Amino acid sequence: GEFLFFYLGEHILHYHPQLFFKHRGMEKRFEGLAPEAGAILAERVSGVGSVAHALAYCQAVEAAAGCAVPKRAAWLRVLLAELERLYNHLHYLGHLADTTTLKVGQAEGRLLEERVKQLNARLTGSRFLRSMLKPGGLRRDLLPKDWLPEKLEDIRQEAARYVQLLGDTDSYLDRLITTGPLPRKVAFDQGATGPIERASGIDRDLRRDHPYAAYADLPVTVPVETAGDANARFNVRAAEIDASFVLMQRTLLLLPEGEVEAECRPAPGTHGLGWAESPRGTLFYAVHVGADGRLARVKIKSPSFSNWRVFPFTVHDSNMMDYAINEASFGLTIAGCDR
Question: Which pTM was predicted?
Answer without folding.
Answer: 0.96
